[in-house]
Amino acid sequence: MSGSPEPERGSSSPPDEPDEHAADVRALTPLGRLRGFLGEPPSYWLTRFVLLRLLGFVYLFAFLSLANQIVPLVGHEGLLPIQPALERFGSPWLGFWRYPSVFWLGAGDDALQALSWVGVGLSLVVLAGYANALILGCLWFLYFSFLPVGQDWLSYGWDMQLCETGFLAMFLVPLLDGRPFPRRPPPRLVILLVCWLVLRIMLGAGLIKWRNDPCWRDLSCLYTHFETQPLPNPLSRAVHFLPHGALAFGVVVNHVSELIAPLFVFGPRRFRHMAGLVMVGFQLTLIATGNLSMLNWLTLVAIVACFDDQFLGRVVPRWLRARAEAARAAARPSTGQTWSAAALFGLYLVLSVPAVFNLFSPHQKMNYAFNRLYLASAYGAFGSMYEERLEIVFEGTLDESDPPGGEAAWREYAFPCKPGDPMRRPCVAAPYQYRLDWQMWFAAPSNVRRYPWAAHLAWKLLHNHPAALRLLDGNPFPDRPPRRVRALLYRYQFADPDDPSGAWWKRELVATWLHPVAADDPGLIEFLQANGWL
After folding, report:
1. CB 3.0-4.6 Å disulfide test: which of 168, 179, 259, 324 passes with 206?
2. In a domain, 8, yes or no
3. Hey, CA dihedral for 450, 456, 461, 465, is it positive or negative?
């Protein structure tokens, strides 16, 4: 090769044999010693592959949830219709500037339904292994568009978290090449930003718990958590009845996973891998013991960034490892992708300032967006714990003779996942989210004026409204609508697993949450008109 030193005459070494002496000299330099301590720079080909497949999985359930529920929730005749909410902004241009969304161009039921299914289709493409910046950009903007119009139903921290995760994922891949292992390597700056997302998610959740509720400090929160969490699953009851010592130890594990492990996401490789394993184990435990929607699955997506190819190569199939190694050998870095990753990193340096201050603030915000794009947001969960489980139970009656509150024959409405009939086993739903069931959990300790959609739901039940009934688990009045509807408030507790009746719950009546109303009730009609629903 031109410019290469020729071997000395009589030397037995081949021309391409490495100069071991030169390597030893380089190893003695400060930079060489640092590289020796830190090891070779990690690669992230498998990391990107696993992260994107898991992201496609989460996107799939997020869009399925919308496809099945968005029209009865926010459609033209939904519980919280879009149109009155959009009209409050006046001009569509002003609304788009404040809350960017494709639905400013048209928010009909067909558009809501169609774009939800487009999201399902693109999610399947990513899950199947094909993702480029265009596909991921479409997924991001589609889901992002639902947040401003989703109102109460898309007001959860994981909705913002999915938007931020999806936005960062766009910069992990080439613009057009959608192959599972494209020629462009994953930018390390973007991997660092995903790790920064992990730190904010986990540390934010740990700090909000420690600061806000003393039960996290005296290790007693799990005495009631599995019973009072939004939607328990079948394993929740067994864990609830564990000895208090075991549950107190669970709180310690929570603090280690959320307050200590995240501090090592930027540490040396071995510590970063150990921290990632702790956080993965913690998220899998939460998945096994409750229905926290997509939160834990989505957090797993970000945690994947803690693992590089050296680690994942030990756990993935050999053929997948071989494909990653072949892609790395044929890699062709892109100047455009490098500069876009650098620009994104610079943007995050600016946008993260409020998030950093928030982590250290005694008045820490939870699930809060500091900008319109939901980037560098504040996250957290269970900062305040319920000590008892209150549930709203809607009932209807065909009886027209008894006065309200009399001995009419009331029939209960069942919901897909939230507790109702004490004999019914808790559901398994996550990462799918039954959004009305979740909002019922928030509404129970409050009142109908704080959650006016509950009165709207009663109105729709009085008319056997087909779209609203799609949100429930069956209709106890299939032949004709009920004459009156009411909502009672019950206190629920897990029944003992050895209860001979086989009941999962025991409950006692606390109060009437919504007094009996009829379709011609003047007060109900006035209330709905005041909210723009009639």
Report:
1. 259
2. no
3. negative
Report how far residue 457's alpha carbon sits from residue 280's, in angstroms, rounded to the nearest whole number: 39
In the predicted structure, residue 18 carries a pLDDT above the cut 80: no
Neighbours of 507 (CB within 10 A): 20
Average pLDDT over residues 446-460: 96
- Residues 55, 145, single domain; the answer is yes
Total domains in the chain come to: 2
Range of the domain at 78: 45-360
Backbone angles phi, psi at 457, to 5 degrees: -65, -45
What single-letter amino acid sits at 414? A
Domain C-terminal end among 311, 345, 360: 360
Mean pLDDT value of segment 340-363:
97
CA distance readout (Å), 144 to 46, 67, 298, 380: 27, 15, 16, 20
Residue 124 Cα distances to 55, 119, 212, angstroms:
10, 9, 40
Terminal-to-terminal C-alpha distance of the chain: 83
Phi, psi (rounded to 5 degrees) for 493: -140, 150
C-beta atoms surrounding 138 within 10 Å: 15
368 secondary structure, DSSP code: B
Among 149, 128, 131, CA closest to 75: 149
Q: Do 281 and 186 fall within a single domain?
A: yes
- Token pair in block for residue 64: 């399925």
Considering the entire predicted model, what is its pTM? 0.90
Q: 3-class SS at 520?
A: coil
435, HSE (Cβ side, Cα atoms, 13 Å):
28
Note whether 462 and 477 are within 8 A (CB).
no
